[in-house]
Amino acid sequence: MRATKATTTTTTTTARERDGATGHDRPGARTRGGFLLLGGVQMTLIFTLASLAVPLPRIGADFRLDRADLILLSAAYGLTFAGLLLLGGRLADRFGGRRTLTAGLLVFGTASALAPLAPGYEALLAARFGQGVGAALVAPAAMAVLRALFPAPAAYGRAMATWGGLSVLGATAGNLLSGVIAAASSWRGTFAVPVAVTLAALLLAPRLLPATPPGTDRALDLPGALLATAGITLASFGLVLTDAHSWGSAPVLVPLLTGLALLAAFAVVERRTADPLLPPDFLRDGRRGLGLAAIGLTAAGTATVFILLSLALQEGRGWSALLTSAAFVPFAVALLGAGRLAGPLIGRYGPGRVTGAGLGTAAAGLGLLAATGFDGSVPYAYGLLPGLLLLPAGGALSFAGAAVLATEGVPAHRAGLAGGVLNTAMELGPTVLFAALLTLGGDAVSLAAAAVLFTALAATTIRTT
Predict the structure, then answer these.
(1) Which H helix or E strand runs over 361?
(2) Could you report the per-residue pLDDT of 321-363, keeping only the tens digit for each?
(3) What percent of the chain has pLDDT over 90?
(4) Is 100 buried (19+), middle (13-18) or exposed (0-12) by CB count in 10 A?
(5) How far is CA 142 from the centre of its chain?
(6) Among the listed residues 279, 384, 405, the one whose alpha carbon sits nearest the alpha carbon of residue 342
């Protein structure tokens, strides 16, 4: 009897330690608080990516910017974010997740505080680049801490099912709130959100997040880091410029081809390095590859709709920034509803089937938007609303299932790497797809093509997982 009691006590204590509870916490309270903190930070990173989409015309008017300047300003955050993510993941694994998270938050918060004080275009552009640098440290570090917060594989899988939907929720919040804030005050007010979240995270992290030990035996692979950062940044920059220049022009081809050449050199270096920045075996898992593809494509589809629809409503239908933001409220509601269902569905049917079903549902939403959403002849309730319900519902399921596929089986010492790769897919997907879709012509054609890609990946995912 005593042995049984002792075993029970030990089991309970172990469970409490695994949940992050202490003697004065109720079981799981600290773990839930830590997850909410990390989730809020992740949402804010993507909120910041989308927060300038609606007020961008006002910024252009204030600083008298041409289209090329606006494109660079809009893309600056994402360029450094995407370019440095692999290095950020390795730094998190090398120096510890919480330490890297704190450093990234300091950079991100400082740049966010300087942005609204910018007297001109150059200062604002520098602040946006700085935000991206901080975000590239924060995003993979947050996933490394998340892995320490949920050490049990089953608990980590459930956490990732929820985590997968946070990014698209952050992007939706960016589109919704930026228009409201810009209408109430000015575009400078949109930077108050990342500043406030950063301060809260810095204050609460020591209390809610577990300390993650550094991996002192891991090298940094600086040649690989430099090649990957320069290659991703230059190639992405070239793709971004396709919105202002033709594909065959020097402003597009020079950075694009240079970036691709550097990425090819990166692949060669990684095969010869003892401790590479991106180990080749990490991407050989077919399920992980499908998960990353689904994350990139889902991020690309939702981002493309945000951009094209925001322009169509404001320039084509004459809607205000506030009314344009309001048009995405049903999108947010559907996203939240589907996000709550994603975890239980993954537990019952598996991440592969849920990812495939989500991609198929999102494809139907894109098809409806392509058919009725952009010529202005069909009222909002009939032309846009059905698509703006199906796309986020499918996107939430796709993100949740794909996040589990992309991270299942990843050991704790590679949690930062997994976060860097996952977020890289999320950042590069919109850049690559949007640039490719621009070559097709009109908005409706672009969304129809995206729907075809979603359908094809849905069929592949369901068949192979």
Answers:
(1) helix 351-372
(2) 778 778 888 988 999 899 889 999 999 999 999 999 999 999 9
(3) 47
(4) buried
(5) 12
(6) 405
Domain parsing of the chain, residue ranges: 31-209+275-464, 222-274
Supply the pLDDT for residue 167.
79
- Give the pLDDT confidence score for residue 374 in this predicted structure: 62
Residues with Cβ < 8 Å from 309, sequence gap 6 or more? 327, 369, 373, 384
Which whole number is the average pLDDT over 50-76?
Answer: 83
The strand ranges marked E within 214-312 are none
Phi first, then psi: what are they for 51, rounded to 5°?
A: -70, -20
Asked whether the beta carbons of 45 and 170 are under 8 A apart, the reply is: yes
For 295, the token pair is 């994350």
Q: Whats the size of the chain, residue-wise?
A: 465
* Inter-CA distances, 297 with 358, 359, 386, 456, Å: 12, 9, 21, 11
Whether 381 has a pLDDT exceeding 50, the answer reads yes
> SS3 breakdown of the chain: % helix, strand, coil, rounded to 5?
85, 0, 15
Q: What is the C-alpha separation between 94 and 196, in angstroms, rounded?
A: 28
Tokens of 351: 């991440």
Q: What is the pLDDT of residues 386-406, one digit of tens each?
A: 999 999 999 999 999 999 999
Using only the alpha carbons of the chain, give its radius of gyration: 22
Comparing CA positions, the residue from 315, 320, 325, 332 lying closest to residue 376 is 315
Q: What is the pLDDT of residues 239-298, one digit of tens each?
A: 888 776 777 788 889 999 999 999 999 999 988 888 888 888 888 888 999 999 999 999
Specify the CATH number for 31-209+275-464; select among 1.20.1250.20, 3.40.250.10, 3.30.2170.10, 3.30.1120.10: 1.20.1250.20
* Phi-psi region at 28: left, alpha or beta (left = phi > 0; alpha = psi -120 to 50): left
Q: How far is CA 16 from the centre of its chain?
A: 31
Q: Give the closest residue to 361 by CA, choosing from 429, 462, 455.
A: 455
